[in-house]
């Protein structure tokens, strides 16, 4: 497994990061939230942010996605009370639903916005290290962003960058119904097998357990220092539509809103 894409730094030299558990959300709700966060991050009124959540069932496709990779008609989608939403992220069609962890890093891209590939590699590394924590050996596939177990895909990555700030992000299949993946050519690849932590381990893996691991490894791998906002930035956070920091940090998030304290060093959970 590759090393960290960022140099080892002392805790005081690491960049501050807000990590927030949004529970379960409609796709459009967090899409709008990300756009507000991108503007705030560009203005410098907030630090980098990692949103962790589950989505209501939905298909999404990237800016270069092809309609033929969605195998359901509009009528069939409506019958299932689902939609296929076209977004500005990279990649083709994929599925999000309960039991899948989704992460949206709204962060300054390295190199003044130029090193997008380095960020993607960093996100892959976070997912690979997460799999390792659960005793699963994952791998990259050169030329195709994401992570695999054998020939089956278990984690996807598709980001967009606006003025040097990333949004959209990654997903990791934890404990979910994989059937909807059979209704698409996932990521534009016909017959691509899809797997999950549950399928690999043969036992249920609650998403809240995966959230805590990903939060910790995201901070460690990408050299962040998780913090809670001070009073002024706490008001900024709620004005943007984030949960109030008064809910406090949590080590075991479930389907409730909260700020996650990642286990990445002695200063976890400190105020800005």
Notes on the protein architecture:
The two termini are about 35 Å apart. Strands 1, 2, 6, 7, 8, 9, 10, 11, 12, 13 and 14 form an eleven-stranded mixed sheet that branches. The chain has a three-stranded mixed sheet with strand order 4-3-5, with no helix packed on it. The longest helix has 18 residues, at about 115-135. About 45% of the residues are buried. It has six helices and 14 strands. Residues about 250-255 and about 265-270 have low confidence and may be disordered. It is α/β, with parallel strands linked by helices and about 270 residues long. The chain has a single domain, classed as 2-Layer Sandwich (BirA Bifunctional Protein, domain 2), CATH 3.30.930.10. A hairpin with a 2-residue loop joins strand 7 (about 140) and strand 8 (about 145-150). The radius of gyration is 18 Å and the shape is globular.
Rounded to the nearest angstrom, the radius of gyration is 18 Å
Strand content: 25-35%
Q: In the CATH classification, which architecture applies?
A: 2-Layer Sandwich
Return the string of H and E elements. EHEEHEEEHEEEEHHEHEEE
| Number of helical regions | 6
What characterizes the major β-sheet? 11 strands, mixed
End-to-end distance, in Å?
A: 33 Å
Shape: globular
CATH class descriptor name:
Alpha Beta
Low-confidence stretches: 251-256, 263-269
Number of domains: 1
Helix content: 25-40%
- In total, how many beta strands? 14
**Structural class label:** alpha/beta
On the 0-100 scale, what is the average pLDDT?
A: 89
CATH topology: BirA Bifunctional Protein, domain 2
What would CATH call the homologous superfamily? Bira Bifunctional Protein, Domain 2
